[in-house]
Every structure is written in C-alpha cells, then in structure tokens.
Design goal:
The chain is an all-alpha fold. The protein has 2 domains: 193 residues, Endonuclease III, domain 1 (Orthogonal Bundle); 34 residues, no CATH class. It is 62% helix and 0% strand. It contains 13 helices and no strands. α1 packs across α11, α2 runs antiparallel to α8 and α9 packs across α11.
C-alpha cells in the first residue's frame, strides 16, 4: 500500500468511526496500566465490568500490596489468566513503589520493563496517558492491516507496527490505532466480517474472495430441493 492509498483508507475509516477512542475505563495512568494488563486475551467489556469495583477498592500501588495474592485473584477471577495477572499486578506495583515513587513511568523502555507490560501495552499507555504518538498493534489492528494490504499476511506484530508508522503521519498514530480497532471490532470482524457493505472491499483480497465465494454458493432452498429429489 502506498501513501495515497493509506490516506484514502484512513479517511474512510475516520468517517465510519469518528468517535473511536480507548474503551477501557480509567481515570489515570496507573488505572490504565492495570486495565490494559487485564485486557490480554480478554474483552474490554469484561475488563470494564471487573475494574468498576476493582478501582474503587484499589486506588494506589500500595493498595494492591496490602492484600494477600489470593484476595486479588478472587477480585479479578472473571478475567482470563487471572492468577498470572494478579501476580504480575503485585510485582508491578512493588516496582512502581521501589523505583518510580509510586508513579507510572513515562518512558517506553521503563514501561516494558514492568511485569505483564509488553510493547503493545506500553504503546497504549504512552499514547493515551501521556499523549505520546504511538500505534499499539493488537489482534484487531493486525488483522485489519493485513486484510487491507498495509502489511503482509506473514508479517510479525512488530513489522506491522513499523509499516503503519511509515504509512501514517506521526500526529495521527494514536487516533489511527483507535480507529483501526473500532473498524476491526465492529466491522471487519475475525468471523463474519461485513464485506457486503464494506467501503474498502476493493483493498481487501480476503473480502473479495469471500464475496465471490458467496455468489457461487447455491441458495439454501435450492440445495434442499435438490437433496429431496
């Protein structure tokens, strides 16, 4: 994909999802770190249900360390991999207190040094909490980028991120991240994408193949009549 094609793609998605934003509820950088950590292999909807009570009980890193691990595990039990995540939260909180005065560091390298915080999480935090342009590549962003030709099917997550950073103007990195997520979450879904009404169908080889296959498929009632004869 060239820059002109990317521009048209970005503008189209912007028209579709003008209100795209981070859907993880949070009030400060610390809560955002916890929410993104919990969101791994879990829906934002479930995370928000859990953090509604979690963030009332735990407001500071020290609060998470004042309870037994088992209690924290029980508080986030509805989250996938809750035992591992609870352990990482307590380890992360200990580092924040010991090394950063209880505050979330602003540097990408410092963030990725925290337990349970990978490159994607760090990108989400720096962009949403500290207004540093970044493109976090989650499953939605990766899928959409590959389907629309911004990246190759066999590209790694890091390669997808680097290609998007080259194609998208730096001051649009963060909002593009949100718009691609909304496009992938609500339109270009992993299963049953809305190809038949997609304004970007011509850019999507997979979508065009789906539509051709759908045209070749015989009507269900005709198939039933044939089976009956």
């Amino acid at each position: 994909m060239n820059a002109a094609a990317m521009r048209q793609t970005l503008d189209t998605i912007a028209e579709m999802f003008p209100d795209a934003r981070c859907e993880l509820n949070h009030r400060n950088p610390f809560e955002l770190v916890i929410a993104v950590l919990l969101s791994a292999q879990c829906t934002d909807e479930t995370v928000n249900k859990v953090t509604a009570s979690l963030f009332e009980k735990y407001k500071t890193p020290q609060d998470y360390l004042n309870v037994p691990l088992e209690e924290l595990e029980n508080d986030i039990r509805r989250i996938g991999l809750f035992r591992n995540k609870a352990a990482n939260i307590q380890k992360l909180c200990r580092i924040l207190i010991d090394q950063y005065g209880g505050e979330v560091p602003r540097g990408h390298e410092q963030l990725t040094g925290l337990p349970g915080v990978g490159r994607k999480t760090a990108n989400v935090v720096v962009s949403n909490a500290f207004d540093v342009p970044a493109i976090a590549v989650d499953t939605h962003v990766e899928r959409v980028s590959k389907r629309l030709g911004a990246a190759k099917p066999d590209d790694s997550v890091l390669e997808v991120e680097k290609k998007l950073m080259k194609l998208v103007p730096r001051d649009e990195w963060t909002i593009t991240h949100h718009r691609l997520i909304f496009f992938g979450r609500y339109h270009c879904k992993a299963q049953n994408p809305k190809c038949e009404v997609c304004p970007l169908l011509e850019r999507c080889k997979e979508g065009k193949a789906r539509m051709k296959a759908a045209l070749r498929k015989p009507p269900a009632n005709k198939t039933k009549r044939s089976a009956a004869t």
